[in-house]
Amino acid sequence: MSNAVAGMTRGGELATIPQRQGNTELEATLRQMVSMNRELRRLRKAMSRQNRRSAIVNQAIVDAQNIIIEATVTGSTSQRSMERIGIGRRRWEWAVAFLRYAGVIAMRNHDWRVGLTWATDDPKEVLVLLNKAATELDDERGYKRLVTCRVKR
Length: 153
What we know:
The chain has 2 domains: 4-46; 49-149. It contains 6 helices and 2 strands; from the N terminus they run ββαααααα. The chain has helices spanning 24-46, 49-73, 79-83, 89-102, 123-136, 142-149, and strands at residues 4-8, 14-18. β1 and β2 (14-18) form a beta hairpin. α2 (49-73) crosses α4 (89-102). Residues 23-53 form a coiled coil.
């Protein structure tokens, strides 16, 4: 064997790096990591789209609840203010789609920077609408239903 050890490239492939003799354990570990990366890529490709879609729906429900909490605490619901609490643009769009589907906010909102226009102010009614919508979206067609309410900015 030469004075080289296997290393990982950015794509998870094996590359040789010149180095001192005696690190066969490191080389074996790196080879194992490469094979694990290949297996992980294969599994990700094999994962059904349904699992990804249901993950989007579930995250939208959680983010919508966070938007409502933030609205009651600070009164701010704009996309920019939600970035401060860790909800990015896409997640905000999905959460807004869920709130639209639930009937909590208006279907059209032309002034995104100001915030969302609420269809109801009653907290009990909001909870009932959210629970009903979450139950309706908890099947294989839930993603398609949510897409109909999503408006990209």
